[in-house]
Amino acid sequence: MPPPKPQIVRVIDLETTGSAPPAHGVLEIGWQDVALGADGRWELEGEGGNLMVNPGRPIPPITQAVHHILDEQVADAPYWHDVARRVLDPYPKRLALAAHRADFEQQFCTPQLSGGADWICTWKCALRLWPDSPAFSNQVLRYWRKPHGIEHERGLPAHRAFPDAYVTAFHLRDMLNEASLAQLLDWSRQPGLLPRVRYGPDRGKDWREIDEESLAGFLTDRDPDVRFTAETEYARRRGGGAVGRPSLQGSLL
């Protein structure tokens, strides 16, 4: 009997010249695996890594100010199509890929490059599992949650591909130990369910605290996360749909 296939999810992080391909290109890709152990618990697996990528265009100063990658540092690097597949679709095949705000990574990591992989968005899952966090960026979650076992220096500098993937992997590990892989994938396919109102007179309030008139105004909001959250709360008040912030117990049933 062949040995069972390893149960692994690969966390991905990209640094790019901007947010809108094909006008913008990838500069760096980092990764860190999270695997299911024999004891039924998920933990980080292996050393992870990173690769520099030639984006085929100059790096704008506005993005250099974020990641501090120089044109000369990627001038001799391989192009994206030469490196992406071996990182995104390695052997043995991963159960899924994951990223913090995965919609961004998916713009560059197309199904053709990822082998049609499913994606977990750790930002969307954090909204569901840890709604009391003061904010939901990768780094705020890091310092608010203080994940067990994280090596502070290994997660630095922020806004570089491997350190960010490493930090995200700790969030993913803890999410997988609280909710099922199937649940995280389901949440990731939906818009973000926001625990608090983002802007306006009710900014900072729990969605359950705002009045009907204010809620109705958000039902046609241009932001899909705001609109989805308002629709969910609207349905809850009328006896249908899930509560805006479902309990962890309910999410596991």
TrEMBL record:
SMART domains: EXOIII (SM00479)
Exonuclease domain mapped to chain residues: 8-181
UniProt record, GO biological process: DNA metabolic process
Hydrolase among keywords: yes
Superkingdom in the source lineage: Bacteria
Pfam families: RNase_T
UniProt keyword annotation of Ribonucleoprotein present: no
Cited InterPro entries: Ribonucl_H, RNaseH-like_sf, RNaseH_sf
Any one GO MF annotation of this record: exonuclease activity
Protein name, per record: 3'-5' exonuclease
Keyword terms: Exonuclease, Hydrolase, Nuclease
